[in-house]
Amino acid sequence: MIDKAKKQIDELINNAYKKAQSAGELPGGEDLSGAVEIPRDTSHGDYASTHAMAAAKALRLPPRKIAETLCEHIDLDGSFFTSFSIAGPGYINFVLSDKWYGEVIREVETKGGDYGTVDIGQGQRVMVEFVSANPTGPMTIGNARGGVLGDTLSAILERAGYNVWREFLVNDAGNQIDIFGRSINARYMQLIVGEDTFPFPEDGYHGDDIRALAQMIWDAEGDKLRDLPEDERLQKFTEFGLPHNIALMKTHLERYRIRFDQWFLESSIHKNGYIDQTIKLLEQGGLTYEKDGALWLKNIELGADKDEVLRKSNGFYTYYAVDIAYHREKLDRGFDKAIDIWGADHHGHVIRLKATMTSPQLCAAFGIDGEKYHFLIMQMVRLTRDGETIKVSKRTGKALTLNDLLDEIPVDACRFFFNARPDTHLEFDLGLAVRQDSENPVYYVQYAHARICSLIAALAAEGRAVSNCADIDTGILSHESEIDLIKQIALLPEEITIAARDYDPSRINKYVVELAARFHRFYTVCRIKGEAQEILLARLKLADTTRAVIKNCLDLLGVTAPEKM
Predict the structure, then answer these.
(1) How many CB atoms lie within 10 A of CB 122?
(2) Got the DSSP string for 93-161?
(3) What span, in angstroms and rounded, lies between the C-alpha atoms of 260 and 254?
């Protein structure tokens, strides 16, 4: 409805210009265009047009004079507006009518769960890769934030008309997997011969999860694997540990309400020769050189701050080579956009990889469009309780993992809090997240939804059900708090548009908190129960409309919308 109002203002002004031109009051031959904005201070109007100022140069007249002439010919008959006025150097302000407010409520009624949907994506295929934690240990708090940001952004992009694919890159190849196997091997052998007898690798993974994996193998096999050749034993331990950890990741993420369309195995592009092919293309493009037995990428020439090793002197490919091949593979699958969500600890790597993948030289070598890549960096999380930083889990005594966090804090609170302000450091107050008062934003929003549901149920018990728009007079809704609430409801499509455009899912948090705040104000000053039938039904419809929009927002955030609290 905001978009409709803006377009209608443009039409009204252009129609007025044609009339003024025909009357000889303004020069002809121009196509009047300008911005239509919602001013911060709406006391003089709900929308402000800049058409007169934009036309001043072409018409060779002062903008104020142009505005005055246009206003003599503006016809509001049948429009969404009741009046207009001139302000400042030539703004033309418009005041909305009851018709527009009623149409907002009607649109929510008509679209229901689809309200807020826009089509800026026009069906473009978009891959969002997020989390992609190494399967060598439990997921961390950073993974918890990346998970909800990626999942919520994906939901917003879908609501904005994109065809979204959620992907998790499983790093099941390379040096870290070798370390993983050797770590399990050491713990397994220590169960047999003692910890003082069998050394643990200096670069090994020291977590209790490695001990648990070794114990599971011991429980199933005893010491039967002890005498196998080490390479064979390491392979068995890796083949047992990786699927176990990946299954655990899936379980924990599903608990977090996150599911992926694909868990992409890094090993697949090693096995099918895709990395070899990618490196050959780089070599053929003159983008590599050899030094000290290793193959290097001329990354400085591509815009990065340093060159990168692609293949070590021992013949193994580096992470950087894998990342290049994997990102090339994304576009080879036909995606129109490939979005990565990375943690701030990868900041330097992301900057270099972005320079690499978007450089004209590499794009020419691969035959790809580098503008399809989008790299998003989320900032770090600090967990606090009562002002003190939390670093360990009470249960394990170790660093707090995603699963530990979900044992302490409801999923709703985790998802809502982690989706806030991705570009800033987040201080996650565990105490606030479980509080049941207005200071806790997720509780505040959910309470508004439950409050409306309780109101609807109570009135239904008295025979006062929510009516259809056709059966009520929405023009009654003229109180300032009612108007403010409807204006906020009308903003959702625009908020989704901007959130999708800017890859900023936190806009939905801010929007729905403000929507809840406006509802609470409305409910405080505008009585529903006990009012005359006509007023009661109109306000009940507004309350139910708010409920529907709150639920739409919570659905986007992956947060439940309780009917009772």
Answers:
(1) 10
(2) EEEE-HHHHHHHHHHHHHHGGGTT---SSTT-EEEEE-----TTS--BHHHHHHHHHHHHHHHHHHHTT
(3) 9
Give the dihedral of Cα atoms 17, 22, 28, 32; nearest 10 deg: 10
Residue type, 94: F
Tokens 């409305």 appear where? 522
Tokens of 285: 């493009």
Residue with tokens 């003599």: 72
Using DSSP bridges, classify how beta strands 373-378 and 388-389 pair: parallel, antiparallel or unpaired: unpaired
Beta-carbon contacts of 384 under 8 Å, excluding residues fewer than 6 positions away, are: 390, 427, 428, 429, 430, 431
The rounded distance, in Å, linking the Cα atoms of 240 and 19 is: 79
Tell me what percent of the chain is helix, strand and coil, each rounded to the nearest 5: 55, 15, 30
Q: Rounded CA gap, 93 and 181, in Å? A: 69
Laid out side by side, the sheet with 388-389 consists of 388-389, 381-385, 426-429
Q: Give the tens place of pLDDT for each residue, 443-482.
A: 999 999 999 999 999 999 999 999 999 999 999 999 999 9
Q: What is the rounded CA–CA span in Å between residue 488 and residue 517?
A: 10
C-alpha closest to that of 252 among 172, 141, 168, 139: 139
Q: What's the CA gap between 253 and 139, in Å, rounded? A: 9
β-bridge mates for residue 388, sequence order: 385
Whole-Å CA distances, 543 to 274, 482, 496, 509: 56, 10, 22, 20
What would the pLDDT profile of 49-67 be if each residue is shown by its tens digit?
A: 999 999 999 999 999 999 9
Concatenate the DSSP letters of all residues of 442-476 into one string. Answer: HHHHHHHHHHHHHHHHHHHHTT-PPPPGGGS-GGG
pTM of full prediction above 0.90: yes
